[in-house]
Amino acid sequence: MEENNNLTAERSLEIITEQIAQSRKTVSKDVGMSLLIAGLCIIGVAFITCICALLTGNMAFHLLYVLVPVLVIGIERYVKRNKPKVPDSIISTMVDKTWQTFGIFVLTFFILSILFNKLMIHDALVADNMQVYFQNRISPVRIILLMMGMAVTINGYTLKSKWMVWCGIIGGIGGFFWEAFCVTQTLIARSGLPLEYYGDAGVIAPNLIMAVFTFIGLTLPGWMLKRQQ
């Protein structure tokens, strides 16, 4: 009897382990599709924003990033409309909650940083001292990339995907330090370009960095997860 109980307990543990592994595999493919869609949407918006801002000189086009969640949700629902819904599990819940938290923090931070920068530039113009604005303005790109990398890395650990973990770390930390140390601006300054190109570079650089590190942190791991067997 005791031996049968041990065998039953071992078999039950095996079944639970198999179910968790199968659930992780199912969720991984679903997350892969979501990451791929999100990455492509952000890259598309980055290029559209860059082109519109360069052609018009209006920086308000950067508000197009606010539309990213709407685009991602709409396209994701359309792509997955005929596919069976991923069953609820601890893994799927952890993944969903991670991205919900990421979305809330990023959207709130993005809007508040824009309002803060507007206030700072207004005060700087009134005081006729733009140095105050340049010293105190918030650069949202580096923080958003860092939070994105954290979310991707956490998902990578949850789904036991080394590719996803490393892509999150490289995309998040790499993008943060690239922006924090103004690597693009330094490279432009050392290139010997005329001063009139610096303004265009200031528009292109943040959007290009967002596109590149979004590809590393979202699109690439999404593609890797989606194609896994």
Q: Mind telling me the C-alpha Rg?
A: 22 Å
| Structural class designation | mainly alpha
In terms of per-residue confidence, which ranges show pLDDT below 50 for 5 or more consecutive residues? none
Q: Please write the string of helix (H) and strand (E) elements.
A: HHHHHHHH
What gap, in angstroms, lies between the N and C termini? Answer: 40 Å
Number of contiguous helices: 8
Q: Fraction of residues in helices? A: over 70%
Sum up the overall morphology in one term: elongated
Percent of residues in beta strands?
under 5%
Number of strands: 0
What's the story with the biggest beta sheet?
A: none
Look at the structure and give the mean pLDDT: 78
Explain what this protein looks like in three dimensions:
83% of the residues lie in helices and 0% in strands. It has 229 residues and is an all-alpha fold. The mean pLDDT is 78.
Please render the helix and strand layout as text:
Elements: H1 2-56, H2 68-79, H3 90-127, H4 130-136, H5 140-158, H6 162-180, H7 183-191, H8 196-227
List the keywords.
mainly alpha, 0% strand
A few lines on this structure:
With 229 residues, this protein is an all-alpha fold. The protein is 83% helix and 0% strand. The protein contains 8 helices and no strands.
